[in-house]
Specification:
With about 250 residues, the chain is α+β, with helices and mostly antiparallel strands. It has 2 domains: about 30-130, Beta Barrel (Lipocalin); about 135-245, Beta Barrel (Lipocalin). The protein is about 20% helix and about 45% strand. The N and C termini lie far apart (about 85 Å).
Length: about 250
């Protein structure tokens, strides 16, 4: 009798182990927003990012945005054809971009260990960590006033009428360049602010053409945002920047 009871208990335990809740934790996938941390030479100020969502792949390859498809089978991963924008950056940045795209196309497998993701292939070992989200809470609803323009190593003061920037919680954007007004939409994606739509209204005198162009280029491109107290710095993917102070 005791033997029969033991056998019944073991049978029930085996059945329980073999019928785990199908709604439990999914198998590890490479889905998420990632930034490259190792495996290739990186250029300060020009991060390489990668976002995977199912079979969709996108990111910033140091200078240009790229996009394509990815096929995942177990821990095997292959990249389909890639498309990209065609901006130009400094030679070192373009070299880093070319090296990354070439390496990406050689990837055959992935390994995810917590917050670390590795893509590997013949002679390839790319290490990624999660992208740190943009601190949008500090950006939203504050009216920022432009006071500084950064172009390479050159820093200059803003001119013209006060140039404002406001990112609203509903995803709309309003700004000015010192001579023209801008309206558009914004969103946070992969650690940067993207502006899918942007339109300008007004005219600028010749002495403000350069400032107007830089403001439109930085805001209209994807940019990184950093808030430090009452200071906001926007840095474009091309490296130029805008410095703002909180109004008030």
């Amino acid at each position: 009798m005791k033997l029969s009871i033991v056998l019944v208990v073991l049978t029930l335990l085996a059945a329980a182990c073999g019928s785990e809740d199908p709604t439990g934790s999914p198998a590890s996938t490479p889905d998420g927003d990632w930034v490259l941390t190792g495996g290739l030479a990186l250029v300060d100020g020009f991060p390489i990012t990668m976002s995977i969502d199912g079979d969709q792949l996108s990111g910033r390859a140091a200078c240009n945005s790229y996009f394509g498809t990815v096929t995942i089978d177990g821990n095997r991963l292959t990249i389909g054809e890639l498309g990209a924008t065609e901006m130009g950056c400094q030679p070192a940045v373009m070299d880093a971009e070319a090296a990354f795209i070439a390496a990406l196309l050689e990837v055959t497998a992935f390994d995810r260990n917590g917050d670390l993701l590795t893509l590997s292939g013949p002679g390839i070992d790319l290490s990624f960590e999660p992208v740190v989200p943009v601190p949008t809470a500090a950006l939203i609803g504050t009216t920022w006033v432009l006071d500084t323009l950064v172009e390479g190593e050159t820093v200059s003061a803003a001119a013209g009428n006060p140039a404002m920037l406001l990112l609203a919680e509903d995803g709309t954007l309003s700004a000015s360049t010192g001579c023209r007004t801008l309206v558009g939409t914004w969103a946070e994606s992969g650690g940067v602010i993207v502006v899918p739509t942007l339109s300008a209204e007004g005219e600028c005198p010749a002495e403000l053409w350069k400032q107007d162009s830089q403001v439109v280029t930085v805001i209209g491109d994807e940019f990184r945002a950093a808030v430090d107290g009452d200071r906001l710095t926007l840095t474009s993917m091309g490296g130029d920047g805008l410095g703002y102070r909180a109004e008030g």
